[in-house]
């Protein structure tokens, strides 16, 4: 089967645009204080936090928006300007499975702005104590890396990612380190229990979407609502009512009392969410301590009809050896292996022979006499242009007094034989592959490209 | 039934598959999605398609299938790319792409946790996502990993530690029709005899896995 061309790497989907009637419908519904999923203006969707088996791995579901977060750590040299502080690295990626039209790799402003917002929320708010991440001042510090992947895009990525990020950081345990003078010992999890990161407070982002030039406000917009909104206000706050970050984007102009009202709503929401997070962390900690089962497998509810579990199953492999022996006995013997390669000159060898050229008739008219190109294996020859079949056919001179020139020179050499006598071309078959392949004449009428790849 | 299981356990405690779990249709945006868990290894697969393809990527006679495998930490590297190739070739062998020419089928896999047998978990998740999306398939496929221990014993569905200590790790993609082999990839060295034994063991394990597929889909559609 010939393949026309295989598509280059990367998703090949196009994003679906929003239709005008959908847009009008959503805006009208918001005017009448109705939301598509039946929520009130200030209601959040259901938040579900589940943990993986590894430390620092968690998945957050905000309605149908799903974000996976993983924290990892590494010992690195510190930044020259801050020799006693650890390094924090945050990365949010929109996986191509989250929505059609998302391409892998560094992309749109959306990703950049989300990353910046999350960095400001987590790094600049100083929620993580970076001084405690220092091992040897100026030489070795811990680099804490937080990777977040958006798995399903149903709006409000910011909130979901901020929750996932802070939960993963709270869940993570780094290896214990002890420093005695010049010696630094890093303990494995088996030797000493890993140590949690020192986290002062938990900043959570809350998003407000504005419609109809700031008249209507919705908390926790879904993807459809985000597409029709005029502007977005994000407030990051912790449960002590400290604002960590505030960002307003879009084409909406807000009055101070609107922002004040939003911050009051944020305080309420953040308190609820923080409580939920604490409970989830406690439950997971309890499950791990009591030796119960933990991990993503446990977080799939049993009663869901779309989920199915199977206990560990045994596989009967008793007569596997006999079956294998039978197959080997019945199988055809391996195909003919070519004998030793023929060494022409140091550095050039030949394995096997080419097949007969199928352009024989055309060749006669051109009086083309080709010769074996030494050093060119079968495979390489076939990969050249179509004319390659000429190259691999072996011609043996029957006249022994012909000039025989063997050289690797690429210059065009024209050696004219007696015009009346065309040398009898004998094409040797594979059976006689070892016979004197060195008796050849170089007669290049045409410059041939050697392995032109 | 219980007696047979006990016997098998006593005879070969090594040839056990870990606990399997599968959740279908858990993501709302992709056309088909599945989360497949084998012990502590879990992979989430999301599939879009057949959908309109970009002009530069469309093929005139069949669907253009594209696989992306994303690791949990860091950027995708050479290992991910090679696994993507293996997955793509396996999927192209079963998907009836000729029914949907000039379209794109995009399969994205996200590693949720890796505790051994990752490639076979990816294969299983991919097949379940194809099933969930309702794409036309000529056969189902499943992935089985075998680890050959230094003493020649075969371990099915090895954990990360078992994979590290093994002499060779072989992953097979087995089709549901006649248990034919769609793809094999090996790491390490083993003899021809040993490879055939691993293949035979993998085909046995494939029976269990296909039964798992059947049960989970039956459960899914038990209440329509």
TrEMBL record, chain A:
<keyword id="KW-0694">RNA-binding</keyword>
<dbReference type="GO" id="GO:0016075">
    <property type="term" value="P:rRNA catabolic process"/>
</dbReference>
<feature type="region of interest" description="Disordered">
    <location>
        <begin position="346"/>
        <end position="453"/>
    </location>
</feature>
<dbReference type="Pfam" id="PF01138">
    <property type="entry name" value="RNase_PH"/>
</dbReference>
<dbReference type="GO" id="GO:0000228">
    <property type="term" value="C:nuclear chromosome"/>
</dbReference>
<dbReference type="InterPro" id="IPR015847">
    <property type="entry name" value="ExoRNase_PH_dom2"/>
</dbReference>
<dbReference type="GO" id="GO:0005654">
    <property type="term" value="C:nucleoplasm"/>
</dbReference>
<comment type="similarity">
    <text>Belongs to the RNase PH family.</text>
</comment>
<keyword id="KW-0539">Nucleus</keyword>
<keyword id="KW-0698">rRNA processing</keyword>
<dbReference type="GO" id="GO:0005730">
    <property type="term" value="C:nucleolus"/>
</dbReference>
<dbReference type="GO" id="GO:0071038">
    <property type="term" value="P:TRAMP-dependent tRNA surveillance pathway"/>
</dbReference>
<dbReference type="GO" id="GO:0034475">
    <property type="term" value="P:U4 snRNA 3'-end processing"/>
</dbReference>
<keyword id="KW-0271">Exosome</keyword>
<dbReference type="GO" id="GO:0034476">
    <property type="term" value="P:U5 snRNA 3'-end processing"/>
</dbReference>
<dbReference type="GO" id="GO:0030307">
    <property type="term" value="P:positive regulation of cell growth"/>
</dbReference>
<keyword id="KW-0963">Cytoplasm</keyword>
<dbReference type="InterPro" id="IPR001247">
    <property type="entry name" value="ExoRNase_PH_dom1"/>
</dbReference>
<protein>
    <recommendedName>
        <fullName>Exosome complex component RRP45</fullName>
    </recommendedName>
</protein>
<dbReference type="GO" id="GO:0034473">
    <property type="term" value="P:U1 snRNA 3'-end processing"/>
</dbReference>
<dbReference type="InterPro" id="IPR020568">
    <property type="entry name" value="Ribosomal_Su5_D2-typ_SF"/>
</dbReference>
<dbReference type="GO" id="GO:0000467">
    <property type="term" value="P:exonucleolytic trimming to generate mature 3'-end of 5.8S rRNA from tricistronic rRNA transcript (SSU-rRNA, 5.8S rRNA, LSU-rRNA)"/>
</dbReference>
UniProtKB/TrEMBL annotation, chain B:
<dbReference type="GO" id="GO:0006364">
    <property type="term" value="P:rRNA processing"/>
</dbReference>
<keyword id="KW-0271">Exosome</keyword>
<comment type="subunit">
    <text>Homodimer. Component of the RNA exosome core complex (Exo-9), composed of EXOSC1, EXOSC2, EXOSC3, EXOSC4, EXOSC5, EXOSC6, EXOSC7, EXOSC8 and EXOSC9; within the complex interacts with EXOSC3, EXOSC8, and EXOSC9. The catalytically inactive RNA exosome core complex (Exo-9) associates with the catalytic subunit EXOSC10/RRP6. Exo-9 may associate with DIS3 to form the nucleolar exosome complex, or DIS3L to form the cytoplasmic exosome complex.</text>
</comment>
<keyword id="KW-0238">DNA-binding</keyword>
<dbReference type="InterPro" id="IPR036345">
    <property type="entry name" value="ExoRNase_PH_dom2_sf"/>
</dbReference>
<feature type="domain" description="Exoribonuclease phosphorolytic">
    <location>
        <begin position="17"/>
        <end position="136"/>
    </location>
</feature>
<dbReference type="GO" id="GO:0071028">
    <property type="term" value="P:nuclear mRNA surveillance"/>
</dbReference>
<dbReference type="InterPro" id="IPR020568">
    <property type="entry name" value="Ribosomal_Su5_D2-typ_SF"/>
</dbReference>
<dbReference type="Pfam" id="PF01138">
    <property type="entry name" value="RNase_PH"/>
</dbReference>
<keyword id="KW-0963">Cytoplasm</keyword>
<dbReference type="InterPro" id="IPR050080">
    <property type="entry name" value="RNase_PH"/>
</dbReference>
<dbReference type="InterPro" id="IPR027408">
    <property type="entry name" value="PNPase/RNase_PH_dom_sf"/>
</dbReference>
<dbReference type="GO" id="GO:0000176">
    <property type="term" value="C:nuclear exosome (RNase complex)"/>
</dbReference>
<dbReference type="GO" id="GO:0003723">
    <property type="term" value="F:RNA binding"/>
</dbReference>
<comment type="similarity">
    <text>Belongs to the RNase PH family.</text>
</comment>
<dbReference type="InterPro" id="IPR001247">
    <property type="entry name" value="ExoRNase_PH_dom1"/>
</dbReference>
<feature type="domain" description="Exoribonuclease phosphorolytic">
    <location>
        <begin position="140"/>
        <end position="204"/>
    </location>
</feature>
<keyword id="KW-0539">Nucleus</keyword>
<protein>
    <recommendedName>
        <fullName>Exosome complex component RRP46</fullName>
    </recommendedName>
</protein>
<dbReference type="GO" id="GO:0005730">
    <property type="term" value="C:nucleolus"/>
</dbReference>
<dbReference type="GO" id="GO:0016075">
    <property type="term" value="P:rRNA catabolic process"/>
</dbReference>
<dbReference type="Pfam" id="PF03725">
    <property type="entry name" value="RNase_PH_C"/>
</dbReference>
């Amino acid at each position: 089967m010939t393949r026309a061309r295989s598509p280059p790497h990367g998703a090949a989907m196009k994003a679906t645009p929003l239709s005008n009637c959908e847009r009008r419908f959503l805006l009208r519904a918001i005017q009448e204080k109705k939301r598509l999923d039946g929520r009130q203006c200030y209601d959040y969707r259901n938040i579900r936090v589940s943990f993986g088996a590894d430390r620092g791995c968690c998945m957050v579901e905000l309605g149908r928006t799903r974000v996976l977060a993983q924290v990892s750590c590494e010992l690195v040299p510190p930044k020259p300007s801050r020799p006693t502080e650890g390094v924090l690295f945050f990365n949010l990626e929109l996986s191509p499975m989250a929505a059609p039209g998302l391409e892998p790799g560094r992309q749109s402003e959306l990703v950049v702005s989300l990353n910046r917002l999350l960095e400001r929320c987590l790094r600049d708010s100083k929620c993580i104590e970076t001084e405690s991440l220092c091992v040897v001042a100026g030489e070795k510090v811990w680099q804490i890396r937080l990777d977040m992947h958006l798995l399903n895009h149903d709006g409000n990525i910011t909130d979901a990612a901020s929750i996932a990020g802070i939960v993963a950081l709270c869940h993570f345990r780094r290896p214990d380190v002890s420093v005695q003078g010049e010696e630094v010992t890093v303990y494995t999890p088996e030797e000493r229990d890993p140590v949690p990161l020192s986290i002062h407070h938990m900043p959570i982002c809350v998003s407000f979407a504005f419609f109809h030039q700031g008249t209507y406000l919705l908390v926790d917009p879904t993807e459809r609502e985000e597409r029709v909104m005029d502007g977005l206000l994000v407030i990051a706050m912790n449960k002590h009512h400290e604002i960590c970050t505030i960002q307003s984007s879009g084409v909406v102009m807000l009055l101070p009392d609107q922002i004040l009202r939003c911050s009051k709503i944020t305080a309420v929401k953040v308190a609820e969410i923080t409580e939920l997070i604490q409970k989830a962390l406690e439950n997971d900690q309890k499950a791990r301590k009591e030796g119960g089962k933990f991990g993503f497998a446990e977080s799939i509810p049993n009663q869901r009809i779309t989920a199915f579990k199977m206990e560990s199953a045994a596989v009967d492999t008793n007569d596997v050896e006999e079956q294998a022996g039978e197959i080997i006995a019945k199988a055809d013997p391996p195909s003919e292996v070519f004998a030793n390669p023929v060494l022409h000159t140091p550095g050039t060898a030949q394995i096997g022979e080419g097949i007969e050229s199928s352009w024989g008739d055309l060749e006669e008219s051109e009086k083309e006499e080709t010769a074996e190109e030494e050093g060119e294996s079968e495979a390489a020859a076939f990969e050249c242009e179509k004319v390659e079949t000429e190259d691999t056919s072996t011609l043996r001179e029957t006249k022994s007094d012909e000039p025989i020139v063997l050289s690797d020179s690429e210059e065009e050499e024209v050696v004219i034989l007696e015009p009346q006598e065309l040398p009898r071309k004998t094409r040797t078959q594979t059976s006689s592959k070892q016979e004197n392949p060195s008796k050849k004449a170089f007669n290049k009428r045409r410059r041939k490209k050697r392995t032109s790849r | 039934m219980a007696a047979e299981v006990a016997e098998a356990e006593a005879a070969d405690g090594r040839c056990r598959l870990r606990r399997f779990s599968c959740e279908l249709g858990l993501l709302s945006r992709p056309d088909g999605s599945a989360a497949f868990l084998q012990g502590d290894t879990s992979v989430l697969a999301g599939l879009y398609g057949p959908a309109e393809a970009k002009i530069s990527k469309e093929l005139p006679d069949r669907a253009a299938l594209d696989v992306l495998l994303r690791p949990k930490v860091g950027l995708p590297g050479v290992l991910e790319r090679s696994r993507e190739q293996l997955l793509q070739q396996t999927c192209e062998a079963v998907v009836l792409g000729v029914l949907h020419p000039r379209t794109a089928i995009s399969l994205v896999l996200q590693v949720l946790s890796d505790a051994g047998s990752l490639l076979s978990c990816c294969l299983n998740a991919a097949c379940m996502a194809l099933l969930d999306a309702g794409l036309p398939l000529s056969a189902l496929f499943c992935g089985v990993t075998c680890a050959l221990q230094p003493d020649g014993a075969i371990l099915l569905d090895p954990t990360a530690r078992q994979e590290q200590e093994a002499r060779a790790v072989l992953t097979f993609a087995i089709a549901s029709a006649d248990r034919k082999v769609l793809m094999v990839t090996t790491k390490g060295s083993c003899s021809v005899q040993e490879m055939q034994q691993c293949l035979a063991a993998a085909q046995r394990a494939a029976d269990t896995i296909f039964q798992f597929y059947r049960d989970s889909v039956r459960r899914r559609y038990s209440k329509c």
